[in-house]
TrEMBL record:
It catalyses: 5-phospho-alpha-D-ribose 1-diphosphate + nicotinate + ATP + H2O = nicotinate beta-D-ribonucleotide + ADP + phosphate + diphosphate. This is Nicotinate phosphoribosyltransferase. It comes from Orrella dioscoreae. Residues 172-398 form the Nicotinate/nicotinamide phosphoribosyltransferase domain. Belongs to the NAPRTase family. The gene is pncB. The lineage of its organism: Bacteria, Pseudomonadati, Pseudomonadota, Betaproteobacteria, Burkholderiales. PANTHER family: NICOTINATE PHOSPHORIBOSYLTRANSFERASE (PTHR11098:SF1). Keywords: Glycosyltransferase, Ligase, Phosphoprotein, Pyridine nucleotide biosynthesis, Transferase. Gene3D superfamilies: nicotinate phosphoribosyltransferase. GO terms for cellular component: cytosol. The modification Phosphohistidine is found at residue 225. GO terms for molecular function: glycosyltransferase activity; nicotinate phosphoribosyltransferase activity. It holds the Pfam family NAPRTase.
């Protein structure tokens, strides 16, 4: 009983408190790449943030995270998802995050902290989302206490009303994607509860599996950048790594979870590989960097060029979205394709202060550097300039 009470007081008190795509990728890792070794590295993109005074709190929360196990009810819930297989549930029944694989300390610059994860991909893949949520909540509970709850609630109501009061947005669908940059677990819970209560059919669900379970909404997500990055080291050769990643995904899910991520090598390289076979096989694609209107138009033209009816395909937008931008995108593409929106920080950390722009990305797989070359240059991430230059050459990308 004491252990349960202490766990409830921690920022993360369930291993389900993460994004669905971590589980969908983890199942692929179990079945196809169980021996892969990886390294992740944390980065704060917001200048002038001093997290060093809170290092002990962050370490304590991570230690508690590593003590968590999946409960029987959590495993039953995951096992009820149509694409989750029984052997994966058996593995999760034995799973815990290995504390020996995560290293937390001071960074090289004043106020900067360093978080590195090294170990088997299968055993470390679930670190990213809860660790980022821990850093956020520790920072904001020390610097924004108490939060202006009424301001946050007003902003949330105003966003929902933009959709509810419009007459031409019957097709508008939004999902909550805000776990990693949320103000707190309590606010995250309130946001999902309000979206479900007020938005009706406009609310598609949540990327967070625990929120989906507790509120009876749909958990959403397919693949993340790390999956395609790892395939740079796991595939037959670098030039074929994107095709290898998509084909491996298709073998695992047989047409389910069919939204492809388009920006690990930039849109040009994605479209070169996303041929007629993939256009017809996958349900759609996700935008996560660059101009969303240009990307959407290019995707529709690409479907047309590959004799694919775009009206049956879904474009998912998830890059720094706000409700006004999502509404504008809905109107631009109405009747031409299906559209869906994943809104994160703008839902779970919008109180008038500056949210933290923090990420935790894979930088190595099996000892080899891996890279993400984004359509937004500031999102490009690689710690090996020579490898990044080689990747740009192989995928016919412009120099940085």
């Amino acid at each position: 009983m004491v252990a349960e009470i202490l766990a409830a007081l921690m920022i993360i008190n369930s291993l389900l408190d993460t994004d669905l795509y971590k589980f969908s990728m983890m199942q692929v890792v179990l079945h196809h790449f169980p021996a892969a070794q990886v390294e992740y590295r944390y980065k704060c993109r917001t200048p002038g943030i001093n997290l060093v005074p809170y290092l002990d709190e962050i370490r304590s929360e991570i230690q508690a995270l590593c003590r968590l196990r999946f409960t029987e009810s959590e495993l039953e819930y995951l096992g009820g998802l149509r694409f989750i297989k029984s052997d994966f549930i058996d593995f999760l029944g034995l799973f815990h995050l290995p504390e020996k694989s995560i290293f937390v300390g001071e960074g090289e610059q004043p106020g900067e902290i360093s978080i590195t994860v090294k170990g088997p991909w299968l055993h470390t893949i679930l670190f990213e989302i809860p660790v980022l949520a821990i850093v956020n909540e520790v920072y904001f509970r020390n610097t924004r206490q108490p939060p202006d709850w009424e301001e946050g609630r007003k902003r949330l109501r105003d966003k929902m009303n933009l959709v509810l009061e419009a007459e031409d947005l019957s097709a508008f669908r939004v999902a909550e994607y805000g776990t990693r940059r949320r103000l707190s677990r309590a606010w995250h819970d309130e946001v999902v509860r309000e979206l479900k209560a007020c938005m009706g059919a406009h609310f598609a669900g949540s990327s967070n599996v625990l929120q989906a379970k507790e509120h009876g909404v749909t958990p959403l997500g397919t693949m993340g950048h790390e999956y395609l990055q790892a395939c740079q080291a796991l595939g037959p050769r670098l030039r074929d790594s994107q095709v290898f990643a998509l084909e491996t995904w298709a073998r695992e899910y047989r047409g389910d979870l069919g939204i492809a991520l388009s920006d690990v090598y930039g849109t040009d390289a994605f479209l070169r590989d996303f041929d007629m076979y993939f256009c017809k096989l996958f349900d759609g694609a996700r935008h996560d960097s660059g101009d969303p209107f240009i990307w959407g138009e290019r995707m529709l033209a690409h479907y047309q060029a590959n004799r694919t009816d775009s009206r049956n395909k879904t474009l998912v937008f998830s890059d720094a979205l706000t409700f006004p931008l999502a509404i504008e995108l809905t109107r631009r593409f109405a009747g031409r394709c299906k559209v869906s929106f994943g809104i994160g920080t703008n839902l779970t950390n919008d109180f008038g202060h500056q949210p933290l722009q923090i990420v935790m990305k894979m930088v190595r797989c099996n000892g080899q550097p891996v890279a993400k070359v984004s359509d937004s240059p500031e999102k490009t991430m690689c710690d090996d300039p020579a490898y990044l230059a080689y990747l740009r050459q192989v995928f016919q990308l412009p120099p940085a």
